Amino acid sequence: MVERTQGLQVAHPLDPLSKSELEFFVASLRSSGHLDHQHLIAMSQLEEPSKSALFNFESGKAIDRAARVTLLDRSTGKVSESVITTLGELRSHKIIEGAKAPILSVESHAAIAAAKADPRVIEALRQRGITDLETVRMETWPIGAQIPKYLDDGRRIIWTPMWHCPTPNANFYAHPISGLHAIVDIDSGEVVAVENDQLIEIPQTPGPYRQSQTGASVELKSLMIHQPDGASFTVDGFKIDWERWSFRIGFCQREGLVIHDVWFADGGKKRKIAHRMSIAELVIPYGDPSQGAYRKNAFDTGEFGLGNYTNSLTLGCDCLGEITYLDVAVAGPDGTVREIKNAICMHEEDFGILWKHVDLDGNVEVRRGRRFVASSIVTVNNYEYGYFWYFYQDGSIEFEAKLTGIVLTLADKPGVEHPSATELEPGLWAPYHQHILCARLDLDIDGDATGAKNSVVEIDSFAHEMGPKNVYGGAYETSEKVLQREGEARRIVDPLKSRFWKVINPERKNHMGHSVGYKLVPGHTTYPLALPESTIGKRAGFMYHHLWVTKNETNERYPAGDYPYQHAGGAGLPEWTAANREIENTDVVLWHVFGTNHIPRTEDWPVMPVERTGFHLKPSGFFARSPAIDVAPAPAQKSCH
Ligand code: CO
Question: What is the pLDDT of residues 561-570, one digit of tens each?
């Protein structure tokens, strides 16, 4: 195993913001007077250049790099956005009326300290036999549901589920302190309410998972991944070339890992597939109405800033083989810039056979497949999310989210009727919930650096009734429908019709005269159980369709809107698509909603084995024949012939 770490290099307009750039932006905002001791930095994001600016850059024209810095003024609670360039030019500065900032780490710490110092909380804990506050673990969660009437005056609030941690290394999620929550006004730091409505015994069965506690001893013989000639990809800053693919790795403090500018060399000619792909939102609606669990509807992307929680990965543990890491940087609320080493892992994986055929004469043609992986993992409170982008030798791309970590827990009496949760250990319950992700896919099928005019087609398989069109009863056909406007492009999956969607370039035809395209193949999907009229249903309205198509607008980035925190709902995709813009033969964005419905199993405890959900993008009439045919047999495969 060889480790190579790329330093922070800034060479391209799509590179993530570097540490030195972030420090410069913070200093510039301080000297401009927009950032003072009253402010916290809520988010710093690369202000990405337009496609035409990028095109000009590729032809030699310089681009000023810029950041969009979101500030929270603690004295007024107002949020502002400043766009500032690396030359120190303040391009714009505006107050975003009505916006509420995401939860910031310093605010979480302050809220927990306030809750722990509150006499009502101390007394309630004492009633439960806990006198050592050091043994209490609190988390800060957005109020993701109805805000209590007496608090609903526009202030920004969080609430604090609590657990008991009887020994320093115990898995505290095994010991929920139920029925006790503090509600904290984030901006004033004041505990505005203490809910202490149920005195339920704290479950005592421990949930150890550390090797030092479990003595985990099931072992296999070693498996080494060796690439004696080195990896088959090259890394130039954040640009990756592998096999016939080329693309760029990006990173955003809000979304985490981003993929930019994806091309595939077809017979030596580079053809564009995507401009930008990311997971633009991740929301986890909880389906248990008890003990505050109904409030657990966190937008991990929009309310926390997922990228903040990116892990530093470890060679041989998170990633195995010939690995290259990329480091990223994020600016904290106080302006301190933090580097996250080994934030993004890149490597190749053997992926079984790519294709095979044995001919009548005994000739065997078989190719081993390999895939390129770019991945990162975040830890948001109890859960870990891995984002994995795979590139394959048949021209396809896959996104897979890997869900692991510890299920959220609450306490209830052992064996009682509790319809929306699974009892894991006596009195320890894990509420039902869904993990709903939304990919934002700015594809440019067979376009150029300036973009592409694409259309989206829905394809269903169907059979005619028995009769002249279906004489034997076994015939079936496909129907194709071009989605012409945003309103009709709100779609749901239909496995009974083997439904898929294809993004085509109507101006580019393949050798058979058909428009070239890539199809979006849904994988593991779920449909929201929360009613559309519920608070979370309104705030995450995007989750009621698995596909949305919008006309590409650079300021339409997040499916629940830019500021989901305590938003009344309706923002993002439902709002934009109400305009019902034309989406045929233009630059479009696909939004794909997918995820899992998590009915916890006892086997998800104490740490959930990885659950996967995702989708594929596959060429469909894009190439004249399988690009995998061009893959040579591996040297070791000569003996197969
Ligand atoms: Co889950």
Answer: 999 999 999 9
